[in-house]
Backbone:
């Protein structure tokens, strides 16, 4: 059981990388770096937390992105998209397509052993930073 | 572990998920650093000795130093002042000459398709991130960390292996299906870089026309050193499909995976894609 938890956690970390990095924008937004609101380091052993953890809303060029994650004994059980960019036009269309896929991937990749990811995708910066924030809060 | 990492990284850092691959789960060291407009992720699979921890702090400090020197978004950076003609050659930080030399070599190796003077303005950004990532990896190595993955915004320098007997496995993001993987590459002591429209739209310009490069949506290049691998990925993206294939065939130290805007995928003969991509079954007991 412990092995499963550890493996899944590292997969979650892989997903974090998958969704991170290389924002879809020609220049850095004025405010994009994540600022975890909690500074308390994880105190419990990793992989033991259960519950819902909401990440900070992150301002991206396209609007705010916010997610929450559900952990079951440290296992990434679900990703919930709370906010996505609401701008009109193509960006919104892309966001609408991208977010469910990101969600699927976050769940579907649990069984794949991936150590990291090269490349990235649209609005991933805000998404991942929010997910990262949620995971940080969870101490996962 | 966390305290040291946080202290080393400063207020912008986050403490990422602490899991790593068994059997080194108890020994690994992870850190994510937000710098240079992106995220740098460190995944160290060796035992985190004091020397390794110090090296991680040094590598993080190094990335911030690079940002201060090379950022084209900071008016006070050395590179910005140079671009405005406000800095003499003798005042340039020592790293600048190294980077510009490497840029010139990359330009020569790609027949000008890599350019650090796009639009006539000094901008070595296309090489700096890969170069900084590779150097960060070297800092860890010099401190004794032999099995590391440094991911600089989606471009990776790998050393050693993920676990004894297990190569690193790196997913390649699918450029047309966000959140999904195109393939998985495996390797030891490998650099992997991906350029594409998924990152920032059509942000790679054809240096010969000044127009956005078209025809390809993603280029992944693998090789030994990320400095060159990253620059070449950018250059091949700008070249387009057929020239990129030709270039790859002429440069045996590099392997390439291309995705065209039509959705066609091509990979060079020895591209290190995982042979068996079936994920291991995860048993609940």
Residues:
């Amino acid at each position: 059981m412990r092995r499963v938890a550890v493996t899944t956690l590292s997969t979650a970390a892989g997903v974090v990388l998958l969704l991170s990095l290389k924002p879809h924008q020609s220049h850095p937004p004025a405010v994009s770096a994540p600022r975890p609101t909690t500074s308390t380091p994880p105190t419990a052993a990793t992989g033991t937390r259960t519950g819902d953890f909401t990440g900070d809303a992150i301002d991206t060029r396209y609007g705010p992105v916010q997610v929450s994650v559900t952990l079951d004994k440290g296992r990434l059980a679900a990703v919930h998209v709370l906010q996505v960019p609401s701008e009109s036009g193509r960006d919104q269309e892309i966001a609408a397509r991208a977010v469910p896929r990101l969600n699927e991937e976050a769940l579907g990749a649990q069984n794949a052993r991936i150590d990291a990811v090269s490349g990235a995708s649209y609005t991933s910066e805000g998404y991942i930073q929010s997910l990262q924030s949620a995971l940080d809060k969870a101490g996962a | 572990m966390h305290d040291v990492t946080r202290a080393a990284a400063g207020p912008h850092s986050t403490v990422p998920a602490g899991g790593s691959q068994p059997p080194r789960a108890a020994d690994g060291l992870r850190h994510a650093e937000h710098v240079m407009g992106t995220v740098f992720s460190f995944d160290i699979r060796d035992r985190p000795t004091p020397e390794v921890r110090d090296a991680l702090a040094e590598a993080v400090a190094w990335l911030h130093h690079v940002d201060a020197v090379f950022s084209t978004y900071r008016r006070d950076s050395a590179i910005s002042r140079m671009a405005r003609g406000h800095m003499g050659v003798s005042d340039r930080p020592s790293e600048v000459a190294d980077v510009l030399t490497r840029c010139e070599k990359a330009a020569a190796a790609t027949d000008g398709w890599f350019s650090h003077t796009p639009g006539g303005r000094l901008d070595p950004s296309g090489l700096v991130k890969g170069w900084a990532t590779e150097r960060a990896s070297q800092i860890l190595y010099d401190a004794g960390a032999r099995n590391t993955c440094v991911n600089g915004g989606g471009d990776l320098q790998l050393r050693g292996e993920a676990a004894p007997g297990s190569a690193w496995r790196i997913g390649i993001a699918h450029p047309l299906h966000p959140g999904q993987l195109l393939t998985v590459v495996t390797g030891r002591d490998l650099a992997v870089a991906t350029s594409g429209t998924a990152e920032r739209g059509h942000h790679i310009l054809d240096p010969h026309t000044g127009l956005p490069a078209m025809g390809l949506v993603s280029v992944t290049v693998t090789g030994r050193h990320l400095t060159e691998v990253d620059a070449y990925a950018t250059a091949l993206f700008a070249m387009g499909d057929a020239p990129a294939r030709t270039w790859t065939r002429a440069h045996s130290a590099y392997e390439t995976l291309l995705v065209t805007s039509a959705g066609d995928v091509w990979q060079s003969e020895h591209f290190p894609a995982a042979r068996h991509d079936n994920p291991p079954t995860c048993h609940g007991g």
Q: What stands out?
A: The CA atoms of residues 196 and 218 of chain B lie 4 Å apart.
